Amino acid sequence: MNSQYDADDHKLEIAYWYYKLNMTQAEIAKRLNFTRQRVNQIIGNLIDDGIVEIKINGLRENNVEMESAFEKYFKLGRVFIFDVDDAENQLDLFGQKAANAFTQLLSDNSIIGVSWGITLGAAVMKMQQRNLSNCKIVQMVGGLNSDTELAKPDEIARTLAKKLSCDYHLLYGPAVVDDPQAREVLMQDKVFAETFDLINRCDLAILGVGELSKSSTIYQQGFLSKERLEKLVAQGYVGDMAMQPFKKDGTWETENHVIGVSLETLRHIPRVAAVACGVNKAKAVLGAINTGCLDVLIIDKAIAQSISQELSLDIDELNKKSN
Amino acid sequence: MNSQYDADDHKLEIAYWYYKLNMTQAEIAKRLNFTRQRVNQIIGNLIDDGIVEIKINGLRENNVEMESAFEKYFKLGRVFIFDVDDAENQLDLFGQKAANAFTQLLSDNSIIGVSWGITLGAAVMKMQQRNLSNCKIVQMVGGLNSDTELAKPDEIARTLAKKLSCDYHLLYGPAVVDDPQAREVLMQDKVFAETFDLINRCDLAILGVGELSKSSTIYQQGFLSKERLEKLVAQGYVGDMAMQPFKKDGTWETENHVIGVSLETLRHIPRVAAVACGVNKAKAVLGAINTGCLDVLIIDKAIAQSISQELSLDIDELNKKSN
DNA sequence: CATTTTGTGTGACATATGTCATTTTACAGG
DNA sequence: CCTGTAAAATGACATATGTCACACAAAATG
């Protein structure tokens, strides 16, 4: 009844009526003697046509765009990127923000596995007190004597449980043993049966990403010998999660010194969230992403920018509505 | 569960996800552990909050804003305002655009009453050929011998009927009689019974607005004597529709020289559309609006601006979403 | 300490929107 | 005049959105 020409002619008024006067598509259709579907289609193209522009003020101060781009590029469920400019309180600041991020991931009636690390500890400590009493926290790697109280997995598990007012279950074994044979024996022992059963049934796992270098916690604290560190680095390993090392491309050989969750197991946990802060962890984070274990990534802007640069990501391009 | 503070914090990402990534409100709610309703409410305020701005390019070249403002201010169903800058072809240009406007008002199975006038004639002539064969056109004022063929009501009725491929019904009487007595007699006559029945049952009436001055068609063509014109003007009359004069405030006394539809009858026709072109008709149009007979107004920009100026209308203000 | 107030969560519901498969219509060549 | 094709209308649905009334809990008030 009406030609293409008419439609062009009417785009402006449709835009105005719909976006400014909040008329419904049906009302507009009635006015123009169009079908509702046709109006719907025209409105759907208004932005592409350049007739309507939607501007979101203050986007650049935020990292939303970069977060979304990462989610899309790496096929992650959720990415949080935080500014932590204040080098002084970096850990505190990042911890606080990561804690807020965790808040969004938690829901009642879930089994939550925790790993270890300074960053993870800082985040858990900053979490708000809540009442998720039907959750259960489970320690996913064995105990280790860290200088920093809150980096210890058992301590993290306990603290988190307190925050959520729920029960927790510890892994009563050492994180690292020297002799693979010893590990083998221990892992088979029935004491761990329930623990590993819980780990396997986790709904959510939260862990830190560690780098592999002489300045890394894992080395500094002596959980990794100089020889093993050098060997791993030589083999191309770049980081670890829950003490399990991986290479830059995300591959790994099964570890036989660590008592705790394996990367293979992590892979089957529906929601795995990793935190990392500090640009020196960029390479490790990239490797962590590549393992395919992660669903949620919580990092600071420095890491994000470093990764983005290394891969020459075009943030704007990625967010084009290609879906 | 989440404080006000959180919501503020999340507005930006909600805006981005909703407007740029086209996520649904439910998806967003899930991400943030909000209820869908809360996200809905936040999104509803995004524009007021100044976080989201919607810009429609090229609005000013159009008259949409002014049209909407008029609709709101005068409580009209629809207002069309057309640019007719080319003084040369003013009638042609305006006629063409008015014809398009009519197109939007027409639907099949309706009784359509027509009046008379140069502008109306021009518009009807420019209408596209269509197939609305279940419509019926009815002439709403008696015949008159105009110089301009297409200003005559019967000619307009016939032409429109041809355009719509439908039947038409003429009013076989004079438009104006000198003696009120004669009019009385004629109006009672059974010949007109069917005609006036049709007029009363009109779904749509289209008519022109005339001014009352020495340069007006109604006077020039001699349908109104000098004496009557001067008397009417002296009494405050400013214009006519279907030969029925009205004052600036929209009031009128019943006319007793004209054979045709009364303003009172027009008032009860669901959709009455009036056309007018040329700034000299501004005052008449304002009066026409004030009669309360009109639902649709089709005018040129000059008239619109004149009226807007006289009433000191603030277009932008009117279109604020006060509803 | 009791009591409003305010913000949120919940469940229910009416509308609005997006999408498809199918039919009509309008139009361009043959 | 016939026929293929592209644009629109139609009818039917599944989702998404806007809005209630109501219940709760935390914060503010007296």
Label this structure with key terms.
homodimer, 323 residues, alpha/beta, Rossmann fold, nine-stranded mixed sheet, 15 helices, 44% helix, elongated, disordered N terminus, DNA-binding
Question: Explain this structure to me?
Answer:
2 copies of one chain form a homodimer. Residues 1-5 of chain A have low confidence and may be disordered. Chain A has helices at residues 4-20, 25-32, 36-45, 64-74, 90-105, 118-126, 153-164, 180-188, 193-200, 217-220, 226-234, 263-267, 282-290, 301-310, 315-318, and strands spanning 52-56, 78-82, 111-114, 136-139, 167-169, 204-211, 237-241, 244-247, 271-276, 296-300. The two termini of chain A are 34 Å apart. The first copy, chain A, is built from 15 helices and 10 strands. Chain A has 2 domains: 4-45; 59-318, Rossmann fold, CATH 3.40.50.1360. Chain A is elongated, with a radius of gyration of 25 Å. Chain A has 323 residues and is an alpha/beta fold. Helices cover 44% and strands 15% of the residues of chain A. In chain A, strands 2, 3, 4, 5, 6, 7, 8, 9 and 10 form a 9-stranded mixed β-sheet that branches. The A-B interface holds A 1-2, 6, 12-13, 15-17, 19-22, 31-33, 50-59, 62, 64-65, 67-68, 78, 100, 103-104, 106-107, 130, 319, 321 and B 1-2, 6, 12-13, 15-17, 19-22, 31-33, 50-59, 62, 64-65, 67-68, 78, 100, 103-104, 106-107, 130, 319, 321. Chain B binds a DNA duplex (30 and 30 nucleotides) through residues 1-4, 7, 24-26, 34-38, 40-41, 43-44.
